[in-house]
Design brief:
This protein has three helices and seven strands. By secondary structure, it is α+β, with helices and mostly antiparallel strands.
Length: about 140
């Protein structure tokens, strides 16, 4: 009897986890991270099954496949925030105002609505989106 309960619990967890993953993948969402200054440019677009990386303003982006496991991890981080409040999150520093850092922003397009953060210093995002930005930069690093 104890074994059956254990099997039932494990199967339930597996099914719930699979259902969450399927829900995340069915949702229409794109993510853009942009960091630039006078002399540098970096933009990442994550949508559907591809990651587009552009390191030159006006350049041709490099397109790579977006593995399902990385997509799920990113979407889980995004679901921890209310994207409608993205523009209200305050940056912890403003070195980009005097060229002390690249100016960056995060943009989330969810169900055909665009939500964008305030500008912030590259590598120093508002704490509410710090995990999302780190995940995006990790994706770029790990698929190259």
């Amino acid at each position: 009897m104890h074994l059956m309960k254990t099997i039932f619990i494990l199967l339930s967890i597996l099914l719930v986890n699979q259902d969450c993953s399927t829900h995340l993948n069915q949702e229409q969402m794109s993510v853009v991270y942009n960091a630039s200054s006078r002399g540098s440019y970096f933009e990442v677009k994550l949508e559907n099954d591809s990651v587009s990386i552009n390191r030159q303003r006006g350049g041709t982006p490099e397109i790579k496949s977006f593995p399902e496991s990385l997509k799920d991890k990113l979407f889980l981080e995004i679901h921890k925030i209310d994207v409608k409040q993205l523009e209200d999150f305050e940056p912890p520093s403003e070195n980009h105002h005097f060229d002390g850092a690249q100016i960056a922003y995060l943009q989330i397009i969810k169900n055909n609505k665009t939500y964008q953060s305030k500008n912030f210093d590259h590598n120093n995002p508002p704490k509410e989106i710090e995990a999302i930005v780190k995940e995006i930069l990790s994706i770029v690093e790990n698929i190259e």
